[in-house]
Amino acid sequence: MPHFCRVVLLCLLGLAPVDVRAATVQLELIGDAQGSALAFQQWGESLSRAGISDFRIRSDSGADGAGIETRGDPDRPVYVVTGMIRSADELTLPGATFRRSEIGRLKQWIDDLAQNGPSGMGGARKKVLGLSPTQFGRIHQELAVSAPLATEGQNAGQLAQRIAGALNRPLKMDDQAAQALAEATVYESPIGLSSGTALAYVLQSAGFGFVPQTSGDLAVVRLRPGVEVWPVGWPPEKSDQRKPSALLEFLSVNIQNVSAATALDAIAKRTQIPILLDRPGLARHGIDPAKAMVSLPGSRTTYSLALRRLLFKAGMKFEVRYDEAGSPLLWVTSMKP
What we know:
Blueprint: H1 3-12, E1 24-31, H2 37-49, E2 55-59, E3 67-73, E4 76-87, E5 90-93, E6 96-98, H3 103-116, H4 133-142, E7 154-155, H5 156-167, E8 171-172, H6 175-183, E9 185-186, H7 195-204, E10 208-212, E11 218-222, E12 250-259, H8 260-271, E13 275-277, H9 279-284, E14 293-302, H10 303-313, E15 316-322, E16 328-334
Parallel strand pairs: 1-2, 1-4, 8-11, 13-16
Antiparallel strand pairs: 3-4, 4-5, 5-6, 7-9, 10-11, 12-14, 15-16
Helix pairs in contact: 5-7, 8-10
């Protein structure tokens, strides 16, 4: 139908012609000048196949992170999104990271931005722990490196300093926090976890947490209601992350009168998934995993169901979380709030 006829028809129906076009989104994708040209080519091909055409890929060793800049007329905004190509299989945009296999989710992210703008697209502009999306993405990337090796029964203060020292980020705390950490013990070793999750767990064992500062310091604060700190692992972002495959494996169980701590240790070793205990939270409700005895009659079940039933008997529960590098862990806490 010609444009003129379409306008007349809308007017006859009592409707005004409405321009439903969304804002324009342009991708400015930057990679290290020393990076692989093949990675640029692979991302370019994947974007084109997905129908994403308004993008540019270039090298820049001085790139300063992801961000969103609004240009153009307010009625027809253009959102210029700066993203970082980390590798042939990792692209970082403001507040989100995508693999090439997630190109559909990336396209949805772009559509969301075009329709809702930076302030209404599920938090593209929302600050986390007082950090802008760009600042948060940068510190999240830094904290994704593996934590230094640690052993069970290590002093919390010394281990926290080791983790922060390896990150080259000073821990900023008062004397009271330093004393509490010096007297606390880390019972579960955060082996194999990233530095952010490991440090959060170490501090949490003494009743503290940390908040990244724009100055580069990591401020140690006491845990209390209403205080937001870096978490011990993050909730799953994707449906395929909700249950690690190891937890879905079947096994024959027959557990008779063993401590919950013993059962958890055995499951952690078999599944190769770290299990961290919310010891301050458990202590508040009088739960000691080393003293809570559990049993599970002989049956064939999955690790997930067995773990859930065992913990329920001791008044505990678990949830799947992921560290900054995307590795799974199990967070065990009290069933009571």
